[in-house]
Amino acid sequence: MRFKNIAVLMTALDAESQAVALKGIEEFGKSRGYNIAVFLWFTGAFEKEKHNLGEVNIVNLPDLSLFDGVIIFSNAFHIEKNRAMIESILAELTCPIVCVGCKVKDYYSIRTESYTAMRQLVEHFIDDHNVKDIHFVKGIEGNEDAAERYRAFEDVMREHNLPILPQRVSSGDFYVTGGEEAAEEILNCVLPFPEAIICANDIMAITICDILMENGYRIPDDVIVSGYDYSVEAQSNYPRITSVRTRFMELGMEACRILVDAIDGKEVPRDSYLADEVVLDESCGCEEKSVAYDEGDSRVIRGEDIARRKQLHQLIKFEKSLTEGDGLEDWIESLKEFISKTEGAEFYFCVNDNFVENVFELDILEQEEMTTAQRLAYSKFSHPVVSYQNKVFVNKPAFESKYAFDGMFKNSDKCKLYIISPIHYLERNFGYVVFVDSPFSVGNQLFISWLIKMGDSIENIRKKSMLQNAMNRLDEMYVRDSLTGVYNRFGMERHFAEIKRKCMMSRISMQLSFIDLDNLKTINDCYGHEAGDEIINAAARILQEESGKYYVTRYGGDEFIVMGTVHDEQEIEEYWQRVKDRIEEYNSGGRMAKLSMSCGYEVFKVEAKTSLEDCIRVTDRKMYDEKKRKNRNKDKE
Question: Is the peptide bond prior to 239 cis by the omega test (within 30 degrees of 0)?
Fold first, then answer.
């Protein structure tokens, strides 16, 4: 059966709130016959530009018009450049679009009623705890929920005639970074230590509590603290965090229900809201919860902790194997070993056309001259380098990249959840991974580490390859003649040692031919040095193209040496006959300057005492004998 498809655009799936909301989307979507394809990246408000480009680039992979509908989370818009790019992509779509946690244009939206719950929390601090000096840690600038939570704080403070000092407001980011920076501001502030700290989410509240306790402050004795989201991490923290419960599962399910109804052509309100609820707990000194904490959650936490420990162990093994590996093949084997130990139905690592050539073999100057757009680009086709299905690695053919993964658009026995994330180093795109129905990629901070390690390790291989390629090119420049491209004397000496060793080990012979071009001085005098260079190049080209296993060296200005292993003298005679035929062909082209060469060769039985100089001396004499013979014949004519 072929199912319909919903695309989800989001970041920060490591956060419990995001993971639970996605679970709601997944459950409702699958129950209504939809695959869920999550285009997932990890960026924050303080993200480095190049890394952000590599992350959000995953949005450019699929042709979203192929999907039946799109759900986008508010955190996808946290960075202004990302917002502009994503909005331009969405503007081209005709399918229904639902925004979770924000309002964008005239798209459907599902939001939590943050304002009322935050008002209740601030009023609780002021009225029930009698605090007046409150420090507020905001969320990401431009985020609607963050703005509503801060607006509620401002309104309550003004209604109680309490001042809002600039030193008492920190610009947070909903992440650990924002909590760390806010804690530093609080500890270093010239004002007296605040009586209360209200954070726009739980992650920042947990971070601040940890830092303050490390600095000797007691919570809630010295300062009371609150967060927002009622996350499992906040409720398992010490102290447990006073928070506001957002029904993230219901939020995800409702977002998916709105989208599916819109796809089915039903009348759906443009904007929907879910109420949030204050949950008082240890961090403010209150333990009477308005929502009972499910003790079963502790069992879930313990079970997840065991799973995370196993994953961490596998991740450490994966990193060690990458360190010990040498090249792309070892990297792929390390990846296969890790995936085979990771829970999940299917896995795919997909790369662009000509991945090996463009990433590992392209000239260093060509790579460095690539524009940002070229480095980020996805090719027309995606090639699965590693494909894992039903606990077996298989070969999967390439498919058009616009599908992101073509299996979503084919017949299947059930609906599936696809997590699709980029593999990159800064703005250099290496491809992407697809996890199918895999718990490893949802609500797991180890997943971020794994993605970064994937990109970093490929970049290390790329740099090693570029260094080796550069060394090989330098080596070639060292042993190659700049005019003709055949070997110079350094190359000749290196290959003589190799030929000598091979001959002595295999008891075979070596041939060495000494060649001198005829009449080159006359050609230079009559037709110019450019014509002379053309004759030298033509000679080198013919000797090289007919050489087969032999090595061709430009020994001097108009002298060449050809050497290699032979089984009998007939081999070298056949070689020189091919060269003579090519020279006749060259001279029949009506050129003024004719190519002619004299040659002396010998087949040597190689011994330990055999020297290159002795072999050259022997064949040089033979070459001069050949040249004298030609001159005598010419005089007779």
Answer: yes
CA 442 – CA 51 distance, rounded (Å): 21
- Token duo for residue 282: 């240890």
* Pure H helices in 215-247: 232-235
* Run of H or E residues at 428: strand 428-436
Do 60 and 378 contact (CB within 8 A), yes or no? yes
| Averaged pLDDT for residues 346-362 | 90
| Among candidate residues 142, 149, 139, 199, the one with its CA nearest the CA of residue 171 | 139
Cβ–Cβ contacts within 10 Å for residue 413, how many?
Answer: 6
**d(C-alpha 245, C-alpha 290), whole Å:** 10
Q: Phi and psi dihedrals of 102, rounded to 5?
A: -160, 165
Q: What is the mean pLDDT of residues 307-311?
A: 71
CA distances from 446 to 309, 313, 490 (A): 10, 11, 52
Tokens standing for residue 47: 């993200």
Q: Which two tokens stand for residue 114?
A: 């943050």
pLDDT at 45: 56
Q: Is 33 helix (H, G, I), strand (E, B) or coil?
A: coil
* Among candidate residues 73, 17, 80, the one with its CA nearest the CA of residue 52: 80
* Distant-in-sequence, close-in-space partners of 566: CB < 8 Å, separation ≥ 6: 508, 509, 510, 511, 572, 603
* List of long-range contacts for 574-582, beta carbons under 8 Å, 24+ apart: 575/546, 575/547, 575/548, 575/550, 576/513, 576/601, 578/546, 579/542, 579/543, 579/546, 582/542, 582/545, 582/546
Q: Is 334 exposed, middle or buried (0-12, 13-18, 19+ CB in 10 A)?
A: buried
Q: List, for residues 614-627, the tens digit of each pLDDT value.
A: 999 999 999 999 99
- Which secondary structure element, helix H or strand E, spans residue 603, and what is its range? strand 597-604
Return d(Cα 328, Cα 163) in angstroms, integer. Answer: 61
pTM, rounded to two decimals: 0.74
Query: Which residues in 227-270 belong to E strands, given as ranges?
Result: 243-245
**DSSP track, 93-119:** --S-EEEESS--TTSEEEEEEHHHHHH
Angle between helices 445-479 and 328-340 (to 10 degrees): 160
Determine the pLDDT at residue 297. 44
Tell me the three state secondary structure of residue 19: helix
Q: Are 33 and 260 in contact (CB under 8 A)?
A: no
Euclidean distance between CA atoms 498 and 366, whole angstroms:
34
State the pLDDT at residue 307: 67
Q: Residue range 134-149: average pLDDT?
A: 92
Amino acid at the residue 92: E
Supply 351's token pair.
């790369």
